[in-house]
Amino acid sequence: MALEAGYPEIRTVGIDGMLVSFGDRLSEPANRAALAFRAEVERESWDGVEESASSLVSCYLRFDPLYLRHADLAAKLRGLIESRDWMQAPLPGGRRLHRIPTVYGGALAPQFGEAAAAAGLSEREALDSLSGARVRVTALGFAPGQPYLGELPECWDIPRQQALTPQVQPGALVLAIRQFVLFTVQAQTGWRHVGQTAAKLVRLGEARPFLLAPGDEVTFPSVSEEVFARMQGDAEGGASWEALA
């Protein structure tokens, strides 16, 4: 799958920002390119660039315009873009594969059945599909450390709800448009609440304050409500991880 026509694209963001986009919608090649490009920007450590971050399909750079001119930074970015095929670039090093046990459906995740029906699946089929999926953290956003994960199989390209769910709890696994979001905070959402986890996603004071990072991969195996209740007393909430090569 190739990048969309007209991409990559370099845009100015205010007086001290530049944005390199690899598409206008989520796709595996565009997300891979954004993650790999941001990692390479970090390795380059250009003087005057003060911060970088990746989103679903873009890499943002904040720089000091008194030290580094827009035109000079744009030239550096163009040179880096042309240096390789970012669609085929390796993902950043240091990635992890996480296993986060999840309760699907029931009182803890009441919109699982609705989401299964929207995907054209029985609840058994939906459980097998979601608990067997291995997804990538495509970006963090909305709240600190809160991951977007995808892409799920095409049957899960279901729309957001027309109304908001007033509140989900931290650890809620919600779904729409072939993506999961795993909530780090109590909040309302327009995505369907299909699963509940006990994972501790934010670890203030630790060297790595967020459990998940862009580029990490995650599975959400199914567990019973009884197992979930026991995991709530566990320091990791039942979650585990291993290093990816």
Automatic annotation (TrEMBL):
Keywords: ATP-binding, Hydrolase, Nucleotide-binding. One of its GO terms (molecular function) is ATP binding. Pfam families: CT_C_D. It comes from the Bacteria. The keyword Nucleotide-binding applies. InterPro entries: CT_C_D, Cyclophilin-like_dom_sf, PxpB. The keyword Cell cycle does not apply. Residues 8-212 form the Carboxyltransferase domain. Gene3D superfamilies: 3.30.1360.40, Cyclophilin-like. This is Sensor histidine kinase inhibitor, KipI family. It comes from Salipiger abyssi.
